[in-house]
Amino acid sequence: MTLSPRGARYPEILSAGLCCYKLGCTSAVQMPRKFRRQSPRVCVAYSMVFHTLCSPVYVVELDWYPDAPGEVVVLTCDTPEEDGISWTSDQSNEVLGSGKTLTIQVKEFGDAGQYTCHKGGKALSHSLLLLHKKEDGFWSTDILKDQKEPKNKTFLKCEAKNYSGHFTCWWLTEIKEDLKFSVKSGRGSSDPRGVTCGAATLSTERIRVDHREYQKYTVECEEGSACPAAEERLPIEVVLDAVHRLKYENYTSSFFIRDIIKPDPPKNLKLKPLKDSRHVEVSWEYPDTWSTPHSYFSLTFSLQIQGKNKRERKDRLLEDKTSAKVTCHKDALIRVQARDRYYSSSWSEWASVSCS
């Protein structure tokens, strides 16, 4: 396999048995389905490593099993120079070869890393090789934690507070160093740029699962041309590129906005005592973040009275009201949550007020 800074243009790459593709390639090339183009942001993420140059970043997909033969990769120096070129790697102190091209056998992580071609002590170009492992027919998923909800192999979760087209995705990992993430999203192949995602950020929240602590990363995405009242015909697909040291993995999540709706809790939850009665009137309002008009984007509310002993609960479903009369015993807790009335979305978190 031959690689160059414009490697995707070379027909020998497209016909090779190995899928090797450049992260950040911007050339408009029709590739077979197995040759997936990756996010430009991954390349940008590495610019701080190379300081002055966003080097070509290639992902080599390998079948991972004992005595696997690996893949032959040919790197090409991005220079008009023809003579006096030598090659080095950040994995070795030795000169690996000479000439405009370098042929290497990629079998394990020791064969990955940054390769640099030089002439006269000056670096001409860099190539970074990352490995994507396939074991027993499945791509590796070592970097992220499987959250197992709503089903197994759920690594990437997304939620929307309304139908505006804005949504948040998050994922968990135990790894604390040498991590880079990039997220891209689109709705169908007809408009792959219709959804934009920002940079992944590390949350201050730490998640404990089975006595183990995980870091939480989040990203904000938005569909620029979203029409809240329109019916969705094509799902949104979110693709997360994850790099840990020299290991590359990707994760995807596909959904309609209506399927990831989770409203914010009702606001202004208040109690008003009623004269000559043991009852009180509890009232609340739609959350500020919910879609308008509320006559069209209606919510259903669930009201719960939680006794001093938290196991004692009384629940009531309220479809078209934002108030109710209830008996409020001392030390009891009144809680209200919301969900989309016409499409069974997730319930919001609880808003609560004490009867004390």
From TrEMBL:
Domain Ig-like: 56-117
Gene Ontology annotations for the cellular component aspect, listed alphabetically: extracellular space; membrane
PROSITE patterns, per database record: FN3, HEMATOPO_REC_L_F3, IG_LIKE
Pfam families: IL12p40_C (PF10420)
Keyword flag Ubl conjugation: no
Entry keyword annotation includes Lipid biosynthesis: no
BP terms from Gene Ontology: positive regulation of mononuclear cell proliferation
One Gene Ontology term of the molecular function aspect: cytokine receptor activity
Domain Fibronectin type-III as annotated: residue spans: 265-356
Main localization, broad class: secreted
Transmembrane segments: none
Localization, UniProt: Secreted
Origin: domain of life: Eukaryota
InterPro entries attached to this UniProt entry: FN3_dom, FN3_sf, Hematopoietin_rcpt_L_F3_CS, Ig-like_dom, Ig-like_dom_sf, Ig-like_fold, Ig_sub2, IL-12
Alphabetical keyword list: Cytokine, Disulfide bond, Glycoprotein, Immunoglobulin domain, Secreted, Signal
Function: Cytokine that can act as a growth factor for activated T and NK cells, enhance the lytic activity of NK/lymphokine-activated killer cells, and stimulate the production of IFN-gamma by resting PBMC.
Family designation: Belongs to the IL-12B family.
PANTHER family per the UniProt record, alphabetical: INTERLEUKIN-12 SUBUNIT BETA, INTERLEUKIN-12 SUBUNIT BETA-RELATED
Subunit structure and binding partners: Heterodimer with IL12A; disulfide-linked. The heterodimer is known as interleukin IL-12. Heterodimer with IL23A; disulfide-linked. The heterodimer is known as interleukin IL-23. Also secreted as a monomer. Interacts with NBR1; this interaction promotes IL-12 secretion.
Name listed for the protein in its UniProt record: Interleukin-12 subunit beta
